[in-house]
């Protein structure tokens, strides 16, 4: 049963781990820790939501615990408004998943955590603030900065791609 | 949801093979060390709580019995003959008490009988142990008391309230001349627990 679950969900959950962890070693640790938690607490799963959703939440929480052990986020007094619209990140759609992951992994740990939690997992800034122990303002400004950095990195990546295509 | 969000949300990658073997070995280690102990302890705690009631009833009734006997002898001062008779009766009962307890502890046949109380019989299983009461009379005590007293020696899970109570009961038993001594009672309970394990 355990092996079946591992085989079914490990590739997807390893994707989650890679998104949050800065390197494969950390991602491996998170994957191992997450599955041990799941097997120990599988009896606590109440069929209120999807099983995959429950597993994913455990992996996101484990990734965040891991992140919190390594990185200390400091609240900032300045609150930068979320000036970059999600539409401006549409350029990311032109890249494949591996490239997007590699770009996201170039973000600083704080930016990456807030970006993953808000944009991909759908946590609110209030929830992120509670989980990471920061203020809502800090969460918002981290996200705005993350988007700004991402936008620049995508532009650079696409320019390189275009140049390569033109030369060839 | 934008396309890139879907791509990231559903991103999959094959994990290194050794991770599964690491998980298996960690789960195995954990099972050997923790799981049986936790089950046993929680069982002890469950039975312990139930057994406490039995012990309290026994000791409370012993106190009432002693109190009534004492009040009579003090209130009826002129009746020395009655006092002497009561004292003699208590002495006799203590001697009988010791005799019965000794026979229970030392006679192999009685040990067998004691152990047989735990054997499940058809219809009505005897789920009690018998000890000699203050007057030498047989008193039935639930074997659950054994789990409570024995579990008091385990440090985990911590149960400061119950340990305090059990210590108090032991002191009461030691200081009360007409009740079975704690050593004997614990010995009997230990014997009962051992016989249960052997089965």
How would you describe what is shown here?
- The complex is a heterodimer of chains A (168) and B (199).
- Chain A has 168 residues and is mainly α.
- Chain A folds into two domains: 1-70, RNA polymerase sigma factor, region 2, helix turn helix motif (Rna Polymerase Sigma Factor, Chain: A, Orthogonal Bundle); 73-168, Arc Repressor Mutant, subunit A.
- Chain A is built from seven helices and no strands.
- Chain A has helices at residues 2-20, 24-41, 51-70, 97-104, 109-120, 125-132, 136-167.
- In chain A, α1 crosses α2 (24-41) and α2 (24-41) packs across α3 (51-70).
- The radius of gyration of chain A is 17 Å and the shape is globular.
- The mean pLDDT of chain A is 83.
- Chain B is mainly alpha-helical and 199 residues long.
- Chain B has one domain (21-198).
- Helices cover 71% and strands 4% of the residues of chain B.
- Chain B has a two-stranded antiparallel ribbon with strand order 1-2.
- In chain B, α3 packs across α6 (144-151) and α6 packs across α8.
- The longest helix of chain B is centred in the N-terminal third of the chain and has 41 residues, at 35-75.
- Classes of the chains: A mainly alpha (168), B mainly alpha (199).
């Amino acid at each position: 049963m355990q092996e079946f679950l591992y085989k079914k969900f490990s590739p997807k959950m390893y994707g989650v781990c890679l998104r949050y962890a800065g390197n494969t070693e950390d991602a491996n640790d998170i994957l191992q820790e997450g599955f041990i938690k799941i097997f120990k607490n599988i009896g606590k799963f109440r069929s209120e939501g999807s099983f995959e959703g429950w597993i994913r939440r455990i992996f996101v929480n484990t990734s965040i615990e891991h992140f919190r052990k390594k990185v200390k986020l400091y609240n900032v007094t300045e609150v930068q408004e979320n000036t970059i619209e999600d539409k401006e990140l549409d350029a990311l759609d032109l890249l494949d998943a591996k490239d997007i992951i590699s770009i996201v992994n170039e973000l600083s740990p704080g930016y990456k955590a807030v970006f993953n939690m808000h944009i991909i997992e759908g946590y609110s800034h209030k929830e992120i603030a509670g989980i990471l122990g920061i203020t809502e303002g800090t969460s918002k400004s981290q996200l705005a900065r993350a988007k700004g950095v991402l936008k620049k990195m995508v532009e650079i990546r696409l320019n390189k791609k275009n140049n390569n295509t033109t030369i060839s | 949801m934008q396309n890139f969000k879907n791509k990231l949300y559903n991103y999959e990658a094959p994990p290194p093979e050794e991770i599964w073997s690491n998980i298996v070995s960690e789960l195995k280690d954990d099972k050997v060390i923790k799981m049986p102990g936790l089950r046993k302890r929680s069982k002890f705690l469950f039975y312990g709580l139930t057994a406490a009631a039995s012990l309290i009833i026994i000791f409370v009734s012993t106190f009432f019995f002693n109190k009534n006997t004492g009040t009579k002898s003090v209130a009826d001062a002129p009746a020395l003959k009655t006092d002497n008779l009561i004292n003699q009766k208590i002495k006799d009962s203590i001697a009988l008490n010791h005799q019965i307890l000794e026979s229970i502890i030392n006679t192999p046949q009685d040990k067998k009988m004691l152990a047989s109380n735990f054997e499940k019989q058809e219809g009505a299983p005897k789920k009690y142990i018998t000890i000699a009461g203050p007057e030498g009379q047989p008193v039935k005590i639930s074997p659950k008391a054994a789990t409570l007293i024995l579990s008091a020696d385990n440090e985990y899970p911590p149960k400061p309230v119950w340990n305090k109570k059990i210590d108090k009961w032991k002191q009461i038993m030691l200081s009360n001349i007409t009740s079975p001594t704690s050593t004997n009672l614990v010995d009997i309970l230990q014997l009962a627990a051992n016989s249960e394990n052997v089965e």
